[in-house]
Write a structure and sequence with these properties.
With 318 residues, the chain is mainly β. The chain contains four helices and 14 strands. The chain has a 14-stranded antiparallel barrel.
Amino acid sequence: MAAICAMAQWACAAEAPPDAGTNTATDTATPPSTTDEVIESTRESVRSTVEWLASGIDKRFGDKPFSDGGKVSDGQIGLSFLNREGHSSHANVRFNARLRLPNLSKIPYLFVGNDDARDVVTDQPDHRPLKDVVRERNTTNNSFFAGLGLLMAKSIDVRLGFRGGLKPYAQARLRHGWQITDYDWLEARETLFYTIQDRAGSTTALEFRHAFAPDLALRWLNATTITQHVPHPAWNSSLGLFKSFGQEKVFGVELQHSGSEDNNKVTTNDIGLVTSWEQPLHKNVLGQIQLGHFWSKTSLMSERDGQWAFGATVLLEF
């Protein structure tokens, strides 16, 4: 979801909110509504829980209190509802946050979350609800993960962590971007990773963006993953057009293609057309709905099977 907002921010300048000073009416204090109170209470509860978890981890490494420089940043928790024609519906809860611990001040950051373990380990770009539907995931694929991040250079970072069941993994990521013209941006990313199951693996991602107008942009995103355990590529590709309507309201249309191979034969192959709409629902709350139609095949000889899919996500930032 954040990728759509990033596209809109890159393609156009954000609209400035009305200046409160220009309002000639007499300002009166408006008491918070019940909705405001519920959302803020939920946000504070989630943040307090993550801070409590961070404080508990931190005190194991020293005597400094968490209040002495401790910080929770980039916190997000989301609830997604996913449905694909011919399959059962399911809901998904995901969260991510970065932690700064006073007793581990020499470590740039720690991370914690609950998400699709496979995507976390292989560092797949652009997590999107309908991609979950295409790949027929369910909530059992999600697991808790945590670890530490090291910034080796401006464009290189290393992650060491654990995912569900205390399964260790390691990542090293190199990222570099080029501003080709005032309207074109190219970014390349190479992630090397290691797990006990996969052994060594890599994900190569390439993203191209072009701004047609201040409020209209195109994005082409490609990613390929290969491992020693499965030495055949799995790929994801999307070509999308995004239109901003200001105030973080974005409409998108994307052509998506994903697949994998086994022994040089295509085992899964999905082509889909997806429309999406994203907008703020409230302060610190974003909403997104997606509707798509996909044509799938499970072998070279099978016919493509058309199916509708729907996804809805509510994201709370804390």
